[in-house]
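Record minuted for everyone:
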Amino acid sequence: MIRSRSVLIAPVFMALAVLPACGGDSGPSARDQAFCKEIEQLDQLDIETDIGAAADILNDLATKAPSDEVRDALNLIAPIFEQLATADQNDAEVMGEIFAMMSSPEIAAASEVLDRYGSEVCGFEDTEDTNPAESTP
């Protein structure tokens, strides 16, 4: 059975596109505010149809990252989105390789870095009920 792209990328995408909520009590720096605003672009994407756009945004964000840790996390995740954008969903071997990459401890750690930055610096909330894999009938 081949997993759909949305099922494969949902965990990573959720870490990147934690939906904006009210900002935190102490405001982020001007650089962080600008970066957080750019992260919000990911919230506008449909992960089924805009995976290539997500890859482009992630690569752009990596060049503007406010810290080495965030940049490194984005540089680990962006190539997966690039591969997903061009992958044949019916090729079980290719999709299996991508799923293996997404399941790696390095990607989990990178996702955690981005999730933490989004919640602690940007004031985003992780809304688990927006997981597209869970909303598919």
Summary: Residues 89 and 95 are 6 Å apart (CA to CA). The two ends are 17 Å apart (CA to CA). Helices lie at 5-16, 30-39, 51-64, 68-86, 92-102, 105-120, 132-135. Residues 1-8, 17-25, 129-137 have pLDDT under 50 and may be disordered.
